[in-house]
Amino acid sequence: MCKEKPTESLLSLVKDNLPVQIQKLTEEKYHIEHHPSEAAIVIRSTTGLPLTLKVTLTSPLTRDEAEKKDGVDSALVKEPSDLLSRQKCLEALASLRHAKWFQARANGLKSCVIVLRILRDLCNRVPTWAPLKGWPLELLCEKAIGTCNRPLGAGEALRRVLECLASGILLPGGPGVHDPCEREPTDALSSVTVPQREAITHSAQHALRLSAFGQIYKVLEMDPLPSNKSFQKYSWSGADKEGRCT
Question: Could you read off the pLDDT of 236-245 as tens digits, one per residue?
């Protein structure tokens, strides 16, 4: 986080001084690159596991271009010619706000993190659910689980999130998903098209039906729980992913 709007010169300065600071902490070697187009520095480990750390420079001043400084409109103040990408800096600020919000609201909510892991896996496996990946999914889970008047187990919490989606919250005319980290009213799913919203709603309704009939393992693509009857492993693919019964 920078006091002033970050520049390419500052990014290069940080990149040049970072190896010296790392040597004070560890003898391990790291490969350091700076990417002005991304407003970031990328640090990669050279030994052991191939780990990568991306550090983005940003500043609160980037978010509010109209903010006044010493009684003078900031638009009238001459700015450096090598300012880093404003969009990348804004995205970094948003990520910080999201992380703080998650720590305060979702991290301590019973079953929320478990359900998030399940649905993240679903987003990775089923293309229909991919638009929910990331911040929108965190908001949905916190809203659905946090509005219950009692703590929920993982199964109940997952069902409640599916019920929320199946009810049509994403459809046109529905309440949508409000972004609590923005100053102005913002729909966290503004980039999701109407057909995508309808497909997610339809898929959630089908998953809810499977859950009601004790077939949630099809949604999770796992073996069913042991019982007296013999089952084979099912995959929630093909017609099931589209929400049609087979």
Answer: 555 555 555 4
Cross-strand partners of 7? 83
- On whether both 38 and 143 belong to a single domain, the answer is no
Distance, CA of 240 to CA of 82 (rounded, Å)? 52
Q: Compute and round to an integer the Cα radius of gyration of the chain.
A: 23
- Tokens (6 digits) for 49: 């596991």
Please count the other Cβ atoms lying within 10 Å of the Cβ belonging to residue 1.
Answer: 10
> How far is 111 from 117, CA to CA, in rounded Å?
10
| Domain boundaries, position 199 | 108-223
Q: Are residues 126 and 101 in the same domain?
A: no
Q: Check if the beta carbon of residue 171 is closer than 8 Å to that of residue 198.
A: yes
- Phi/psi for 53 (5° steps) reads -120, 130
Strand pairing category for 40-45 and 52-56: antiparallel
Spatial separation of the C-alpha atoms in residues 55 and 167, rounded to whole Å? 40
Instruction: Give the model confidence (pLDDT) of 158-184 as tens digits.
Output: 999 999 999 999 999 888 899 999 888
Counted domains in the chain: 2
In a domain, 70, yes or no: no
- Report which of 206, 169, 210, 176 is spatially closest to residue 191, judged by C-alpha positions: 176
pLDDT tens track for 83-120: 988 999 999 999 999 999 999 999 989 999 999 999 99
pLDDT in tens, 134-143: 999 999 999 9
Q: Give residue 99's pLDDT.
A: 94
